[in-house]
Design brief:
By secondary structure, the protein is an alpha/beta fold. The protein has 10 helices and 9 strands. Helix content is 37%, strand content 18%.
């Protein structure tokens, strides 16, 4: 906030393109998402859709003149079906429904856990065997999960996913388009895509 205020006071126009995760159900999330000093210092904010544009106008001090709905590269490509790396997920799934599961390292914000801990993911893996006849699971790991120094050891979780390779795939690429294109359903935590 204070840096954006200082930059704005220098006469520089600030533009912000949100990460693309405008959601959160509680008052604190809404306040952090839409009504920070940082956001209110923006000359323009370019958001995903008319729906999120309205939320910014309702929950922040920004106006329709400042908030523009122009899409988001991460999501626009889903509609435009840009060329991807083609992992062949449909072939791996062999006609089963593809379920994309976004997994994230443990994240605590203001003393609140906002992502599942590893035990939640391990329990989930213990129960997916019964869905293996109808479903193929792509586990999309946050890239920082592999940084043991910062986020602990997720080797147990990763090994368990790899052990179920007949109906599970660990996706580690940072380009999310391919699994998003193929997914019939998406399971995520609050920090996700």
């Amino acid at each position: 906030g204070r840096y954006s205020s200082a930059i704005k006071n220098m006469g520089i126009r600030l533009i912000y393109i949100p990460y693309g995760t405008e959601f959160g159900g509680d008052e604190e999330s809404l306040e952090l998402q839409y009504n920070s000093e940082f956001l209110n210092n923006m000359w323009r904010l370019y958001t995903l859709s008319e729906v999120t544009q309205k939320y910014y106008c309702i929950y922040s001090k920004l106006t329709l003149k400042k908030v523009k709905a122009l899409g988001h590269p991460k999501y626009d490509s889903l509609y435009n079906r840009e060329k991807t790396t083609n992992y062949g997920f449909e072939k791996m799934a062999k006609g089963k429904k593809i379920i994309l599961v976004k997994i994230h390292f443990l994240k605590i914000f203001k003393n609140k856990v906002v992502t599942p801990d590893m035990d939640v993911y391990l329990k989930f893996l213990d129960h997916i065997d019964k869905y293996s006849k109808d479903c193929f699971f792509i586990f999309m790991a946050h890239p920082l999960m592999f940084d043991e120094e910062k986020h602990g050891n997720y080797k147990v979780l990763i090994d368990k996913i790899k052990d179920k390779e007949k109906y599970c795939y660990l996706y580690t690429d940072q380009d999310y388009r391919e699994p998003l294109y193929c997914a019939d359903a998406f399971i995520c935590d609050r920090s996700s895509v």
